[in-house]
Amino acid sequence: MNMKTLTRVGMIAAIYTVVSLVLAPFTYGNVQVRIAEALTLLPLIYKPSIWGVTLGCFLTNLIGAMLGVNPTGFLDAIIGTIATFGAAYCTWVLKDKKVNGIPVLACLMP
Prior knowledge:
Blueprint: H1 3-22, H2 24-27, H3 49-67, H4 73-93, H5 104-107
Helix pairs in contact: 1-3, 3-4
């Protein structure tokens, strides 16, 4: 990865983390509503964003576990991150499968 790509990945991770932390009452809990998960659509236009969204999810879950506000704790940091990676990766894989010119299947992943 070159420096420009690494910087973009870091910025995406930071945006995911900040949005999740600002909306912390909705972000953490047994039922989680994460507005930042909308960023899993970024692989439609930029493949390295898969890593940014994954890193952002891991950081968000790790911070929540360390602060004690995430009831699912460190388990969420592992399983939630794997789920986010899977959604972002599937978005990238399905981006070329279009219905009437719209990547409908890719948009179902988040």
